Structures are given as structure tokens and as C-alpha cells.
């Protein structure tokens, strides 16, 4: 009679232990069944009335029921504890291999990148990479390039004049003069660098920009050599076919002189602020070195000939990355710079 009662009780409590969804629910079951005033305790109290042999038997049964329920409870408590730990581990998960927040590796300026790329290309072709000063003599910047003081071509390039016959170089062509003096003929050189013009600044003009000068002096140098050189360069940079056109162009230090234009890669020739709505961008002024320039460089024009070009590195960067305003390049604006 009491046995059946105990067994039923044990079954119900066990079921409720398993059904408990939270530690609080479980605790409520424990208090109700196994607490000091719980059901089991009630039954124990009533045992006083039993006959001694009954007492022993029921007492034993009561004890096993109690320990059985206690271990079921402990097991369920452990499940809750394990689930709580799992939830906490999930919530507080941390990837210690991630880079620390706030550090952002820097990168080279797009102009530096393109300059280094071209230096690598030309070095691999056996071309010397030369350097010249940004503060240059009037002689190297103009006179030695067949632009004497009274020459109207001086007005082609608005110049920042300094004292004592010095200026900020208006182009990288003075490095031609330095190259001829340093290397002598035959020579094959490039000279990347920063140049300055006293210009009104707008989306396609800056007072400070970059050029890459190229010069070859050898026997029987022709326009074909020059074109090969420039095409190699363009193919390397754009990694795709670009439409080019060659126009006559005037520069006192070359004869004949040309302008090599590329179809604007920003608007694909339809017209935009960068190409001043023309669809074409002047990228590569070039020509055969003027005999006067060779002569002033100590090279006999009867024996030697040459070609030269002055690549607009800044324009090239703009074409390559689709930058529609030259002023971004010198702005120091991190939102711009972080894209490279
Ligand atoms: N130095 C010229 C300029 O900046 C470009 C140029 C270089 C033209 C070499 C012909 C040959 O305008």
C-alpha cells in the first residue's frame, strides 16, 4: 500500500525533474519533494505509526527512493550548468588571432606604386634610372634644352622662380641634360620625379605633379624605336589595349616633336572633366632629340641621334584608377589614400 504510493510518487517527481526547463523550476521540484517539509519528509514522519518490521522495510525503500531522486536532481542540475557554460562560451567567444582593433597597415601612394612598377620594368630592360634635383638651374631646365631666355617657349611653362638663377623644375627634361653629362652616348635612361608649375589649379591641373622622362641616345635612332618603347610602357601599365593617336607637337628640345594621346579611360572617349570633354588625354609628349640639345650635352649630332619622351605620371595614375580630379592626389585625404 505505502510501497505503491512511494513508487508513484517517485515516478511523478522523476518526470517533473526531467521536465524542468530552468534551474528555478528544478529547485521548486526539489523543495516540494525532498525539502524539509516536502512529500518524502511527510511520509517519513508518518512512519512512527508502523509496526517495527514494516518500518524497517519502508524505511529502506524510502531511503533508496530519496537517493535515487537526489541523483536524478543532481544530474539535471549538471545539465543546466553545462548549458549555461556553453551559452557563456558562445557569447564571450574571442578570436585571439584577429589583428588588434585600430591598427591599419599603411600603403604606398598610388604615384609611388606606379613609379616603382615602371622602374622595375625599365630596369629589367637594361634602362638606367636617374634622379635629379627639384630645385634646378635655369640653365638645365631651359637653356640646355634649347630654350634660351628670349625664347617664346619659356612661356609654355609657368615657372616658380627662385633666387640666383634657380627655379623649381617645370619638367623632368633637365635630367636629360644631367644624363648626357653623366653617362655619355650611347645611353638609355628614365628619370621619374616631381615637377612644379605656377598654374591655376582645377580638376586637371595641379601646381605639383609627376613625370617620367625617357631618353635614348644611340646610332641611327628612329621614331620606330621611340614608338616601341612607349607602346611597351603603355601595355605594361594598362594591361589592356588602349587606343592611341600621334599628333605633331612642339617642344624646342625635340625635332620632330609629337603628342601621343590615349583615349580617355575614364569616359571611354565620350568626354569628361579629365579629358576636358575632348575624349583624349595627352599622356606622352615625345620626339627625336634636337641636335642643339645633343650638342649642348657634349654629344656630336652628326654621330648620334636620340629620342625623348615625358610621360605624365600623374595623369597615368588618374587613368588607371579612374580618378576624376587631380587634386585628390596631393590632398593627403586618408579616405582617398586608403583605397590603394
Ligand atoms: N618636358 C616636356 C613637358 O613637360 C615633355 C617632353 C619631354 C616633350 C620629352 C618631348 C620630349 O612639357
Describe this structure as you would to a colleague.
The protein has 340 residues and is of the alpha+beta class. The protein folds into two domains: 2-91; 110-337, BirA Bifunctional Protein, domain 2 (2-Layer Sandwich), CATH 3.30.930. Helix content is 42%, strand content 18%. It has helices at residues 2-19, 23-34, 39-46, 52-91, 110-124, 138-141, 174-183, 223-238, 291-296, 313-321, 334-337, and strands at 128-129, 135-137, 166-168, 187-196, 208-218, 244-248, 254-263, 280-289, 305-312. The strands form two sheets. Strands 1-4-5-9-8-7-6 form a seven-stranded mixed sheet, sandwiched between helices. Strands 2-3 form a two-stranded antiparallel sheet. The two termini are 87 Å apart. It binds phenylalanine. Phenylalanine is lined by residues 171, 173, 251, 254, 257, 285-287, 308-310. Phenylalanine (PHE) is lined by residues 171, 173, 251, 254, 257, 285-287, 308-310.
Amino acid at each position: 500500500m505505502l510501497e505503491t504510493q512511494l513508487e508513484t510518487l517517485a515516478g511523478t517527481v522523476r518526470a517533473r525533474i526531467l521536465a524542468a526547463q530552468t534551474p528555478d523550476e528544478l529547485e521548486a521540484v526539489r523543495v516540494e519533494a525532498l525539502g524539509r517539509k516536502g512529500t518524502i519528509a511527510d511520509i517519513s514522519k508518518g512512519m512512527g505509526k508502523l509496526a517495527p518490521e514494516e518500518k524497517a522495510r519502508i524505511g529502506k525503500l524510502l531511503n533508496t527512493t530519496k537517493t535515487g531522486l537526489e541523483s536524478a536532481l543532481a544530474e539535471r542540475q549538471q545539465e543546466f550548468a553545462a548549458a549555461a557554460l556553453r551559452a557563456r562560451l558562445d557569447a564571450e567567444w574571442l578570436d585571439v588571432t584577429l589583428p588588434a582593433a585600430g591598427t591599419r597597415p599603411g600603403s604606398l601612394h598610388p604615384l609611388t606604386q606606379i613609379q616603382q612598377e615602371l622602374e622595375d620594368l625599365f630596369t629589367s630592360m637594361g634602362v638606367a634610372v636617374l634622379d635629379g634635383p627639384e630645385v634646378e638651374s635655369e640653365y638645365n631646365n631651359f637653356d640646355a634644352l634649347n630654350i634660351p631666355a628670349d625664347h617664346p617657349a619659356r612661356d609654355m611653362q609657368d615657372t616658380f622662380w627662385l633666387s640666383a638663377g634657380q627655379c623649381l623644375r617645370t619638367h623632368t627634361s633637365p635630367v636629360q641634360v644631367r644624363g648626357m653629362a653623366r653617362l655619355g652616348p650611347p645611353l638609355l635612361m628614365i628619370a621619374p620625379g616631381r615637377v612644379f608649375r605656377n598654374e591655376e589649379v582645377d580638376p586637371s591641373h595641379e601646381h605639383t605633379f609627376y613625370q617620367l622622362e625617357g631618353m635614348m641616345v644611340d646610332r641611327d635612332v628612329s621614331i620606330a624605336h621611340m614608338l616601341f618603347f612607349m607602346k611597351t610602357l603603355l601595355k605594361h601599365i594598362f594591361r589592356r589595349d588602349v587606343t592611341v593617336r600621334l599628333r605633331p607637337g612642339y617642344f624646342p628640345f625635340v625635332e620632330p616633336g609629337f603628342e601621343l594621346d590615349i583615349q580617355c579611360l575614364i569616359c571611354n572617349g565620350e568626354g569628361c572633366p579629365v579629358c576636358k570633354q575632348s575624349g583624349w588625354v595627352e599622356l606622352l609628349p615625345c620626339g627625336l632629340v634636337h641636335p642643339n640639345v645633343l650638342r649642348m650635352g657634349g654629344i656630336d649630332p652628326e654621330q648620334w641621334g636620340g629620342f625623348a619622351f615625358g610621360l605624365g605620371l600623374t595623369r597615368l595614375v588618374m587613368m588607371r584608377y579612374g580618378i576624376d580630379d587631380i587634386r585628390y592626389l596631393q590632398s593627403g585625404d586618408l579616405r582617398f589614400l586608403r583605397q590603394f
